[in-house]
Every structure is written in structure tokens, then in C-alpha cells.
Amino acid sequence: xxxxxxxxxxxxxxxxxxxxxxxxxxxxxxxxxxxxxxxxxxxxxxxxxxxxxxxxxxxxxxxxxxxxxxxxxxxxxxxxxxxxxxxxxxxxxxxxxxxxxxxxxxxxxxxxxxxxxxxxxxxxxxxxxxxxxxxxxxxxxxxxxxxxxxxxxxxxxxxxxxxxxxxxxxxxxxxxxxxxxxxxxxxxxxxxxxxxxxxxxxxxxxxxxxxxxxxxxxxxxxxxxxxxxxxxx
Length: 233
Hints:
By secondary structure, the protein is of the alpha/beta class. The chain has helices at residues 15-26, 58-68, 93-118, 138-158, 189-202, 211-232, and strands at 6-10, 30-35, 46-50, 74-77, 122-128, 164-170, 206-209.
């Protein structure tokens, strides 16, 4: 349980972040949410900051927030966007990487130093089972591959310092991000939030959920690698 703990949730105006915020509050945590839109949550123990993780001043906003708030025990980075690949419109490809990967790294660079100094704390990032090569959504897959690699490296580097880092690799979640026409093993945002809550309690380095989806994507990744090899040949 997390009663009395302070948690920062980045990207919580809808989807998994919103469901997670409500669960944390129900368990007695104090929560600060940060998203580019106002939050529908109105509850005791909750505060909200409107900010865009892709904006040039995001780091400064986050530093100001940490300077005015008591230290956070945990931070969960839920912000994310994704677009299906359109060869006639590549304008948003870089934005996907800025939100999904650069925003997460900027967040880590601000929230981790106080945790390292205290010798405790927990950073959780929501990556994706689709963090391999994708012809359908290459910018999304690349951003999540980078995030998975970064979080995995942080977990190894910071565990000796008393700070835990968790990479949560989800399959399809029933949110606005689920744009594929076929979405096997899709789960609800509430179920995804339950998985994140379990991670906050147990603090593993990595969780892949659902495992059946992970196995399916692993097989597809092997087939994609074969296609790439045949193309080079």
C-alpha cells in the first residue's frame, strides 16, 4: 500500500494516467498531476499543473514544481502520443519522439537527483511491447525502444543508490492511443493502472503485460528482422 506517499504523475488528464491518479488517491497517496490539459480530478490530496512535456520550458516548469513541493516518493511518466505512419505527412514524427522519449528523459533528469540524494525513490515509465521495428508506426516504436533501453539502463545504474526504476511494457490499452484496426489482447485503462499500482508496490525493473501479447510481438519482431535481412541480401 502507498498511504501517505507523494507521487508525481506526468500525463494524467486521461487514459492510464487518469486511472492511476484515481487509484493512488483512493489508497491514500498525495498526488500531483502534470499534463497539457486541466485534470478532471478534484479531490483532497490532489494538485495539478498544466504543462506540455514537449515545450521548451518544460524542464524549468518541472524544476519550479519540485522546488515548491515536498519531495516525491515516486514519479510515473505516462505521457505519450502515437501516429500511424503516413509517408505523405511526416510532420509529427519528431514530436512523437519528443513526447515519448525526450520528455521522459527530461523528467528523469529533474526528479531523480533528489531521490539519489535521499537514497530512495521510484521512477516508473510506461513504454510498450511494440518497442521493436515497426513499418506501421516507426516513430512510436523508435521512441518506445529508446525509452525501454533508457529505463533499463537507469534501473541497473541506480539500484545501488537505493533508487528503483521500472519499465512497464504494455500491449494494446483501450485509450485514444490504440489506433490499429486489429488490437489483440487489449486491456482497459483501469486494468493498466492496476498493473502500474502493483509495480509501485513491488518495484520490479521491468514488467511486460499481457505476456501473451509480448510473445506475439516477439514472434512478429523475428519475422520483421528476417524481412530486413532478406532485403539487404
